[in-house]
Amino acid sequence: MKRYRLKDLDREGQDHILNGIIPGKYLSKAGLGIKAGGHRSHDVGCDCPSCDGQGRHIHTDDSEVFIILQGKAEIEINGSRTSLGAGDVVVCEAGEDHHLIADQDDPCINLYLHAGEQPHPKQNRG
User: For the segment 20-72, what is each residue's pLDDT rounded down to a tens digit?
Assistant: First the structure.
């Protein structure tokens, strides 16, 4: 896990805002997470391709970045938890079991991002 603040991200406007923090020329997958208090992402029963259904969520081929936009959360990496708040940026590296847990009283809103060598399929790169 690597931790940054929004002010630490690329301000040169080259490639994407996570340039130099994670590999990949383009932001290739992304989304907005709005969590209920106490929610743990990719928990037991999750059937996404990076989950084992038993509560482990690991990307083998890329990093995932969480940017906390509002509220509070904890990031759980390989069973260890770290507190996060608005403006925190966390890089979960390939091979790390990772989960975002929303604070019970002040649940987070976050971005999650992946980078790769191809743009997101919805982007028209002409």
Answer: 899 998 999 999 999 999 999 999 999 999 999 999 999 999 999 999 999 99
Q: How far separated are the first and last CA of the chain, in Å rounded? A: 35
- Quickly count: other Cβ atoms within 10 Å of residue 62's Cβ: 17
CA–CA separation, 31 and 112 (whole Å): 5
Look at the chain and report how many structural domains it folds into: 1
Structural domain includes residue 125:
no
Q: In one letter, which amino acid is 30?
A: A
pTM, two decimals, is 0.91
Interior/surface letters 9-29, b for 16+ CB within 10 angstroms, e for the rest: beeeeeebbbbebbebebbbe
CATH code for position 74: 2.60.120.10
pLDDT digits (tens, 9 = 90+) for 73-87: 999 999 999 999 999
